[in-house]
Specification:
It comes from Populus trichocarpa (Western balsam poplar). The chain is mainly beta. Helix content is 6%, strand content 36%. The chain has a domain of 76 residues.
Length: 477
């Protein structure tokens, strides 16, 4: 496991006449120690340093106002891309100070550089510990130059005016230029961003964020049938144009694509939750089945063919259920994250509509101490998922891992280092990423194995941890 490390600040000292001990060379070096977020405390003369060797790639950027939600836009650059530099496309909605200042950003980040690293790093020299690692991009300059590119990504941005904050935004899987957005004003809109995506694809010039033009564009469709604002929204991965949206008044509406860039929205909502619907997820194997989670602590499984009541409804957490994720590679597995900081994994085969007892729980984690804000299964590894929390941590978990004393001893021998890993951490915890404040949402990139993008109050991060094996090239490549 790789985490941020703890090291002492360099003390500022005045040289005294005849006091040779004031030389910086006489200050003893401190051993590296694994730091446990939420457990260990920093001393007055200690600070956290980012370890750049923990990442194949790490970049930060922002598009102006903070974004509560974003989505990765599928592109035509290749289904499985492993070679740096990378190019990625996103859509994001802002949380501006005033309603009229908001916009939806459509942006392209190119020249995302990095380097594939060995799973077992070579031992660092004594001088490396004094390197300034505050800026991960600058630390990778020399390595990225070997890859044939600069370490600084190029951000190109186009903005579409939007009145009100965007609670959540999602791009359609089958037609990525079609996006749906939830507004805090209480309506859901459908947008066609093909013109902007095409313009970005043809352009190579970076535009300063402040100089970006704001386009006035009308949405394709605007639905005002919800009785309150909401956050829950999901496109069907199986049926193009099929959408579900849920609001804070516990109502869920089903959308069906119609001719002429229009949608038919069922005016009669799905009801069953007793509080706000927080998240929605379509099944990857069934056209009419979707899941929902709620502030009422329950998860519901719905079949649109069976009416407007849930087919299965069960207590999932002892607090609000904020987010859910349906595993696309193992369709029987559903993950959920709660306001109490816990997240759970369930096997849906063990659910029964006739039994009130929940026998489906296969894993329950209490690592995070603050609300879970986002959870998502990896699109490339069936046992891997990532979680973000209000504790400013993004964690990656591999549920197939178990503690192996012999393997740990072998790894320590190879690194030739003393790694004092805490014994009480879950063996499934693969990686901890920090450095962002007030993390809101994360997404894996479906076309770039090992890449995760996250948004927080202070901007976006693109990260590729070095210990996720799917990011490494196969032998002989």
């Amino acid at each position: 496991m790789v985490r941020s490390i703890k090291k002492p600040k360099k003390a500022k000292r005045k040289n005294k006449k005849g006091d040779e001990s004031s030389s910086s060379s006489s200050i003893p070096s401190m051993p590296t120690k694994v730091w446990q977020p939420g457990v260990d405390k920093l001393g007055e003369e200690e600070e956290l340093d980012c370890d750049p060797t923990a990442y194949n790639s790490l970049h930060a950027f922002h598009i102006g106002w903070p974004c509560l939600s974003f989505d990765v836009v599928r592109d035509s650059l290749g289904l499985l891309r492993t070679d740096f530099p990378h190019t990625v496309y996103f859509v994001a909605g802002t949380q501006a100070e005033k309603p009229d200042w908001n916009s939806i950003g459509i942006f392209k980040v190119s020249n995302v550089s990095g380097k594939q690293r060995e799973l077992v790093p070579s031992k660092t020299t004594a001088g490396d510990s004094d390197m300034d690692t505050d800026n991960s991009d600058s630390d990778e300059d020399s390595e990225d130059e070997e890859e044939g590119g600069s370490a600084t990504p190029v951000l190109q941005l186009r903005k579409v005016a939007h009145r009100g904050c965007i609670n959540r935004i999602r791009a359609m899987t089958q037609n990525p230029h079609i996006c749906a957005s939830w507004s805090d004003a209480g309506y859901v809109q459908i947008w066609d961003f093909s013109t902007h995506l095409n313009a970005l694809a043809e352009s190579e010039t970076e535009v300063p964020r402040g100089a970006s033009s704001v386009f006035n564009q009308a949405p394709l469709f605007n639905f005002k049938g919800h009785k309150d604002e909401g956050y829950a929204i999901d496109w069907s991965p199986r049926v193009a144009g099929r959408l579900v949206t849920g609001d804070c008044k516990n109502c869920i509406h089903l959308w069906e694509s119609a001719s002429g860039a229009k949608w038919n929205v069922d005016a009669t909502p799905f009801t069953g939750h007793t509080a706000s619907v927080e998240d929605l997820q379509w099944s990857s194997t069934e056209d009419h089945v979707f899941a929902s989670c709620s502030v009422d602590g329950h998860i519901a499984i719905w079949d649109a063919r069976l009416g407007k009541s849930p087919a299965i409804y069960f207590k999932a957490h002892n607090a609000d259920v904020n987010v859910i994720s349906w595993n696309r590679l193992a369709s029987v597995m559903l993950a959920s994250g709660s306001d109490d900081g816990t997240f759970s994994i369930r096997d849906l085969r063990l659910l029964s509509p006739k039994s009130e007892e929940d026998k489906s729980l296969v894993a329950h984690f209490q690592y995070h101490k603050h609300p879970i804000t986002s959870i998502e299964w990896s699109p490339h590894e069936a046992s891997t998922l990532s979680v973000s929390s209000s504790d400013n941590q993004l964690t990656i978990w591999d549920l197939s891992l178990e503690k192996d004393e012999e393997e740990e001893a072998e790894f320590k021998a190879k690194t030739k280092e003393q790694v004092n890993a805490p014994a009480d951490l879950p063996p499934q915890l693969l990686f901890v990423h920090q450095g962002q404040k007030d993390l809101k949402e994360l997404h894996w990139h479906a076309q770039i194995p090992g890449m995760i993008v996250s948004t927080a109050s202070d901007g976006f991060n693109i990260l590729m941890p070095s210990n996720i094996q799917s990011t490494l090239p196969s032998e002989g490549v």
